[in-house]
Amino acid sequence: MTDTPTELPGSMDPSIPATIMRERPAAAAAAPDLGAPPGSGDLTDELLNSDMWTDAMLATAGIPVADVPLVSVGGGIGSFVTVDYLRIAGVPTNRIAVLSNLDFAWQTYEYLTRVSQIPRPERIRSDSASRPDNIWGFPSYAATEAFQEGNWGELWHVFVEPMWADYYTPKAGRVFAGLERESKRIGWDQMLVKGQVRMVRKRQGGGYFIILTPKAGLTPTKRVAYRAEFVHLAVGYPGLRYLKELQDFRTEHQDFHHVVSAYEEHEHIYEAARTKQITVMLRGGGIVASRVLQRIMDDREKYGLQTQIVHLFRTFIDGAHSPNEKTLHAWNKRKGGHGFAYQGFNYPKSVWGGQLKSEMRKLEGDARAVRYKEMGGTNTPWRRRWQAQMKAGRDGGWYRIMQGTVDEMRLENGKIVSVAKTQHGKLEIPADYIIDCTGLEADISEHRVLKDLLDHSGVGRNPTGRLDVERSFELRGTASGPGVIYASGATTLGGYFPGVDTFLGLQVAAQEIADDLARRGFCKKIGTFRSISQWFKWARNKQP
Amino acid sequence: MLPTLGGRIQTRIVLLAVIGGLVTLIITPVLPLPAGTTLSNAYRDTFIILAAVAIIGIVWECVYHLLMQWRWEKDWPTFFGFITMINEGALIWVLLHFKAIPGIVGTVPTAAFVIDFVLVWMAVWLWANGPARVVNIRWRFHGGRFV
């Protein structure tokens, strides 16, 4: 039995947080877990096979138990935002434990943004008032940037966006600095327990047990258990998938150098472009494709390079469109062109508080799934600089766009040739490097903790196949006496609230969870007086 | 804040009543009103104008909501919330000019009206785009609804 997710050879640096990059073996193919002997401090057969555990079972197994009323599993930004809310609602640090393999909450996020070409000085795709370090979103990032950096133009920017300026977006470095400050203010490190969460199971008599595997040698037993009345799951993306043909090519040729995912370190491609003329093929039409494209184009301009780019879109958008053509009306069109669908953020803005949020909250089953399809689909922001760069590329013939799918890939004269079915028929496209920017996500069952919940705790799937949560983000079917499991983030996409895997979405979820916990008597509901007094504490950087 | 129709109307009424009311209370005594206007008459006029902006505004909000349907994002940019001061102010001014707003005592000079209207609007708009989020942390996620 192992808690270390299986890695594909060369797929990543082991220091990288495990949440996303490591591909897990298919659940069906995994060897059944064998129980450890009683008293060994490890999971026994009895524990592995029981849907509901008793205190005595843990004692028999010799696994020590710690009592904490609320445990958040994940420790990334989803956990952070929720715990931040609860701390502001008056919950002390000794009533919360955050179980995580991350050293700090934004570790995975920073890794992913950096490799996908958003280093600290660059701007992320997020709104000015979406501040994971400030539950009020006031002052906004734009206002803070204006005051702190004397960059008063940013106030004008948010005043005229999006008509006469691209949407304001904060610099990644500012977001991380804010998270660091808030992390210290709320005492994050006092709540953080490092280790790999193995499973969450219901407890007979109410509440749950959470099994943690701390780093070897840190504890006398291999496992430790947390007994909690409330559990919050924010485990992030279950895993990342490559396009099948790219995965097959990588496996067959053991080539993890010329065919990469944009979410992996791939600086070597930009370095190679500086030493010789190369052709790079991009797959995917989302924000990551735009970012990678910008980096290649910026380098081209900066160093006078001759890099050629071939961009293959599976879904090619060539004008205003609706992801569901049946609903294509004058009042329901999204901008698009040259392959891309354009949208400021990953969902239409009003899902985070306006009309679409209100509408989605009422929809069930297929009606909700259809609506998700109508407003979803891969998209990227329309930014003036990118438009100018891409136009120059198309006009100069060094940026070629096409629609198609790839049936076959082979090596020929040192190039990777993709045999593509395109709008112009079958084409053979040679390239030196291929960057997969599609960001396909793995199924939730590929995450070990979620798989265990699906198998043992009555967790269901929503109309889009992810975790089925209530409007309060309670995980349906998991109530255990007075205990509740909540889930937020990417694993809950498809629920009553879209936009879950965004800063603001995590805050919407955190607010619902905090209010639900207040109804259950775990904490106080944040009313006007508390909100104002806590905001002043935030402003003065005083503990909540 | 991304509004729903109900949220728009609630936000307008609450913010005009509280923020607009405070601003009106403060600025009315210093408005350039005709000599001899008593303070009680001045307050009567400015608060009636404030009420008119709130009530007629309900119709405006329906119009804005309709216009918003043509936006893919179903959002209402900050600039729109600012610039609608012009059409709304103009309508109120015309109604005042034709004495169509009941209860107004005497004639409200254009300068006094413009100062009153713009200051109230600016205060409400600035509040809605910032501190309002602190006073009620649920407001922005509920489309501007308070209840």
Which features characterize this protein?
heterodimer; A: 544 residues; alpha/beta; 7-stranded mixed sheet; 5-stranded mixed sheet; 18 helices; 21 strands; B: 147 residues; mainly alpha; 5 helices; globular
Walkthrough of the structure:
The complex is a heterodimer of chains A (544) and B (147). By secondary structure, chain A is an alpha/beta fold. In chain A, the strands form five sheets. A seven-stranded mixed β-sheet of chain A has the order 11-19-12-13-16-17-18. Chain A has a five-stranded mixed β-sheet with strand order 1-6-7-8-2. Chain A contains 18 helices and 21 strands. Helices cover 32% and strands 18% of the residues of chain A. The N terminus of chain A is likely disordered. Chain A is globular and about 70 Å long. In chain B, helix 1 packs antiparallel against helix 2 and helix 1 crosses helix 4. Chain B is mainly alpha-helical. Chain B is 65% helix and 0% strand. Chain B has five helices and no strands.
List the helices and strands and how they pair.
The complex is a heterodimer of chains A (544) and B (147).
Chain A (H helix, E strand, L loop, with lengths): L17 H4 L23 H5 L2 E2 L1 H7 L3 E3 L2 E4 L3 H12 L7 E5 L6 H9 L25 H9 L3 H8 L11 H14 L2 H4 E3 L1 E8 L4 E6 L10 E5 L1 E4 L6 E2 L2 H10 L5 E3 L5 H9 L3 E5 L3 H17 L4 E6 L22 E2 L2 E2 L13 H6 L4 H11 L8 H13 L2 E14 L2 E8 L2 E7 L1 E4 L3 E2 L6 H9 L27 E4 L15 H17 L8 H12 L5
Parallel strand pairs in A: 1-6, 2-8, 3-4, 3-9, 4-5, 9-21, 11-19, 12-13, 12-19, 13-16
Antiparallel strand pairs in A: 6-7, 7-8, 10-20, 14-15, 16-17, 17-18
Helix pairs in contact in A: 4-17, 6-7, 12-15
Chain B lengths: L4 H23 L11 H30 L9 H20 L12 H19 L3 H4 L12
Helix pairs in contact in B: 1-2, 1-4, 3-4
